[in-house]
Amino acid sequence: MAHKFTFQTTSDDRRRSLPRKIIIGLGPDESERQVALKILGWALFFRERLQIDTNVPDDAVPFTPGLVELGYDLRPKLWIECSEGGPARLHKIAVKCPGTELWILQRSPTEAEALRHAMKRAELRRDRWNLLAFDPAVFDEVCGLIRERNTFHWFRGDFDPPAMQFELNGLWFDTTFEVSKY
Questions:
Q1: Which of 122, 123, 112, 114 is CA-nearest to residue 181?
Q2: Over residues 121-125, mean pLDDT
């Protein structure tokens, strides 16, 4: 399995002036699943300062987010979890990053519901996390298409209604996703 994945990116969306190329590294405990979560999350949440797998320059925050937007004060403005972290990790992130917009990306609504149940059991504070769940069939197909070198073209994506259109390695996707709050 490759340890880094290159995506040649283009966009039809004027709000998302994507860079020509991004590279997503594979961590020691990661799979193509995390790469798929990162590329889809990166395109959907794209902002000029959005970064992939960047350490937060704050010793009080011991975690590395899948995607993060740092403000000019180098504090996280947007934190997107793309890993399999449990409720204890999520609680620590929420405590260490007050005022940060927090998201968790999940493969499917079933996995998002299982995580929501675990968060409830662990008594995490409510109204802090946003959960985004992809269509599992589409997500699995995206995972199967990812190679060391990829082409990614973004057509459109929005949260109202939750839908996205993109092309990965020559295959067109027009899909929806679910958004919920915990």
A1: 112
A2: 95
Q: Of 29, 180, 34, 33, which Cα lies nearest the Cα of 117? A: 180
| 50-52 vs 67-70, strand pairing mode | antiparallel
What integer is the mean pLDDT of 45-73?
Answer: 93
pLDDT of 15 above 90 = no
Classify 112 as helix, strand or coil: helix
Residue with tokens 């769940």: 133
Cα distance between residue 23 and residue 8, in whole Å: 9
In whole angstroms, give the CA distance from residue 121 to residue 106: 19
Q: What is the mean pLDDT of residues 138-149?
A: 97
Which residue shows structure tokens 């973004």? 154
* Overall size of the chain counted in residues: 182
CA dihedral 62, 90, 55, 40 (to 10 degrees): 160
Q: Residue 40 has what pLDDT? A: 98
